[in-house]
């Protein structure tokens, strides 16, 4: 009832109940006192701890503040250093930018110069290649010209049907085909000029004879001591078995000159045997042991034409040999 708040306080209690209630209240009071003591002790402990913690926090805070102040000073110093470095770097960057701008301008100028020089180099290369091609072409042409015989070109000797020809002029005549004296005389003029050039080429001065090339009015001079006789190397009129004796002397002289040219060619080549195609002796040219006289007198037109053809073939052979000789 004492513990019940709804119970009336003025209820009378018996002794035992009162004693029991007092004992219970004392017990509860003792427990409350014990708790109070514990709370007070805990409060004191907390106060001590709070005081110690407060003083410790102040010292730590002061130390931390001092440390932070020092760090701030250090960082400010580093900041000033970094700002100085930044300013220096910015200055260097400006200088580098200026240098870069100048370098880019110089680079552009140099590239422009390089491009111009490269274009000039390509042009020069093309010109060099062109000159080299032209040089190669000229060298090939020179070699081709060296391999060619100017004499063979200037005096084209060939066979046309039964005739020997020089530069297209027939040297001979046949009964069934009359060749005019103008053509024959022009052919003799070409032969005379060719033999005169051959004598100079091989380095020979004719003995007893001298060739006078004058086109279709050429002549052969016979030198006998102080006396000189000139025989015409051209004819006229018809075919006369007993005529044209002056022309015959000229043709024989022409053959003797060719014999002397062959002898000089043999000497230059150190050859023992004849170097021309057909053997020549006196007034004859021999083909397969058959002699053909170069004189018209007492000769047939066919055999005389054959003799003139053999004469021209020997001259063609002499040209081929002479071009291989070193300059005299």
TrEMBL record:
Gene3D superfamilies (alphabetical): Autophagy protein 6/Beclin 1
Keywords attached to this entry: Coiled coil
Coiled coil: 22-102
A Pfam family recorded for this sequence: APG6_N
GO cellular component: phagophore assembly site; phosphatidylinositol 3-kinase complex, class III, type I; phosphatidylinositol 3-kinase complex, class III, type II
Residues annotated as domain Atg6/beclin coiled-coil: 13-140
Coiled coil listed as a keyword: yes
Domain Atg6 BARA: 145-322
GO molecular function list: phosphatidylinositol 3-kinase binding; protein-macromolecule adaptor activity
InterPro entries: Atg6/Beclin, Atg6/Beclin_C_sf, Atg6/beclin_CC, Atg6_BARA
Family: Belongs to the beclin family.
Designated name of the protein: APG6 domain-containing protein
Annotated organism of origin: Panagrellus redivivus
